[in-house]
Amino acid sequence: MHRKLITALLVFPMLIMANSFVYAKNLGKIGQTYPIKEMDMLDFIQTRLKQMQQGGELEKINKQMIETAKTRSDRPTPVKGISSTKTYRKWFIDPSITIKNDIIEAQGKIVVKAGTMVNPLRVTSLKSTFIFYDGDNKAQVVWAKEQDKLFKGRTKLILIKGSVVEQINIFKKKVLFDQRGELINKFKIQHTPALASQEGLQIKVEEVVL
Predict the structure, then answer these.
(1) How many CB atoms lie within 10 A of CB 92?
(2) Is the Cβ–Cβ distance between 145 and 175 less than 8 Å?
(3) Tell me: the pLDDT tens digits for 13-65?
(4) Which of 135, 137, 131, 99 is nearest to 115 (CA)?
(5) Residue 140, Cβ neighbours under 10 Å: how many?
(6) CB 111 within 8 A of CB 125
(7) Full DSSP string of 18-85
(8) Which of 15, 92, 152, 165 sits between 20 and 30 A of 175, alpha carbons compared?
(9) Are 102 and 110 in contact (CB under 8 A)?
């Protein structure tokens, strides 16, 4: 595609030149003519930036960009389609995965063959209970605090909406934000507050009514 474009760009001017040799004709001079002067784009940009800096526009833009970045990091876009729980629900998720390619050790021996189904909970465990909640919902924040205390701090706090900094100040511990709803989708959660914890070789998920 790029080669065709380059060829076209090279051939097009040649065709125009050839065309002008065939049909060129002196039509005389009509009106006064002026030399064409092109503005250097770099000079234009530098001049405009200097004007913006002197007028305070540049500083204002920089401040706006910094504030926007701070806001987005503290309060990311809420996870879409999540509402408060109206009816209690519980279900289980099998975290097993199918190995797509052979897993081979250094000596070339196949450890796990492609197509093998593996449950990671057989070799490791989910040490924390995941708490999904809306940080802008006071009742859900209170509930999350109760759950965190109930599980003696062995929790992962997952926000789907709200201020990360505010929640860190409340809980005095790390608070995560489920950006793009990746965990919510993985656990098939539709409402909050919700819990996800290990039960046997499965993950138990609950949507809790307050």
Answers:
(1) 11
(2) no
(3) 443 343 433 444 444 555 555 555 555 666 666 776 777 677 777 566 666 65
(4) 99
(5) 25
(6) no
(7) HHHHHH-------S------PPPHHHHHHHHHHHHHHTTHHHHHHHHHHHHHHHHHHSPPPPTT-EE-
(8) 92
(9) yes
